[in-house]
Amino acid sequence: MQTMTQATPHMPPQAYDETEPKAPRILLVTGASRGIGAATARLAARAGWDVAVNYTRDAAAAQAVAQDVRALGRRALVVQADVANETEVLAMFEAVDTGLGRLSGLVNNAGVVDMPGRVDEMSVARLQRMWAINITGSFVCAREALKRMSRRHGGGGGSIVNLSSAAAKLGSPNQYVDYAASKGAIDTFTLGLAREVATEGVRVNGVRPGIIDTDIHASGGLPDRAAQVAPSVPMQRAGTAEEVAAAVVWLLSDEASYATGTTIDVTGGR
């Protein structure tokens, strides 16, 4: 006679005693003085993260974001560093270690575009700047985060979210092929790193924004680009920094515990 056994429900990897205090969750957001980075810092604070707010030039804007984080009851640390400069990146991570504690989250958000142009008009200096900030900066920040998060290095795990762009799939001809290529590199980096550290307690994911109404368009010489391109988006509008931040903060969270190596499109269907 065949006996039936009742399946045991899958249990979560770790059970927590709600009566015991939990260690603070500490997040570093690069390029957090404006746009998607600032929105991510604020939303992460609402979700219970202490936040290190990185900036390159605008200290006042970074301080304003930090004040918003503190107003939500979380700790905030403002740290200046150009992610293209390894010495400054190392100092930034050391400041976070000292000022907040052991890192458990990183958002690689810092990035640049340049003036619209064709590939046959691009200088080597332009390309080197693009690669240094958008690609190398993300690699070096992830490297330093892994030294603090990965179980291979004695860490307690963590989450990395890389900001890509819909340009990685569209190519941005006659505008920003170099920017699109740099974000294509980020897509590959996200997938490869996620698989590399999947057994070390670190998840690595990406978010690929579409046309988002932020200041980055002005820095690329097209301040009205979001409004101009909006009619070509299936949803007929540009997105907001907060809509992108929602995807980033979800990927950082325990709710995304089985997500790694994936990149979420936040593009309005584009």
What does this protein structure show overall?
This protein is an alpha/beta fold. The protein has one domain: NAD(P)-binding Rossmann-like Domain (Rossmann fold, 3-Layer(aba) Sandwich), CATH 3.40.50. It is 41% helix and 14% strand. The protein has helices spanning 35-46, 59-71, 86-99, 124-149, 167-170, 177-196, 216-219, 225-229, 241-252; strands spanning 25-29, 49-55, 76-80, 105-108, 158-163, 202-209, 263-266. Helix 1 (35-46) links the parallel strand 1 and strand 2. Helix 1 packs parallel to helix 2 (59-71) and helix 1 (35-46) packs across helix 9 (241-252). It is globular, with a radius of gyration of 19 Å.
Number of strands: 7
Distance between the termini: 58 Å
Rg, Å, rounded: 19 Å
Number of domains: 1
Helix content: 40-55%
The largest sheet, given as strand count, sense and whether it forms a barrel, is: 7 strands, parallel
Element string (H = helix, E = strand): EHEHEHEHEHHEHHHE
Poorly predicted runs of 5 or more residues: 1-20
Q: How many DSSP helices?
A: 9
Shape descriptor: globular
